[in-house]
Write a structure and sequence with these properties.
Structural class: alpha+beta
Strand content: 35-45%
Helix content: 25-40%
Order of helices and strands: EHEEHE
Radius of gyration: 13 Å
Largest sheet: 4 strands, antiparallel
Length: 85
Amino acid sequence: MEEPASRAVRIAVYIGSAGRALSEITGAISSRNGNITKAEVTVTDDRRGINHFVVEVADLRQLQEIHDAIREVPDVMNVERVRGL
């Protein structure tokens, strides 16, 4: 039986303060079986963070589960899907 094809999806995660959130965010993604293929982390002058991830997901349900898991991480202000890679 073949595994279902995965899709690469770009996610932007905005955090209130740079710190341990990165490891918690990546843990939230992997706990929902998302495969991170790219990560870009930017810390702004006011010590907030903007993180962009490219994550391989099987379907929309898995993407929603990943979004929900990331939103539970302390200091995460917003999570959104970015159209286009």
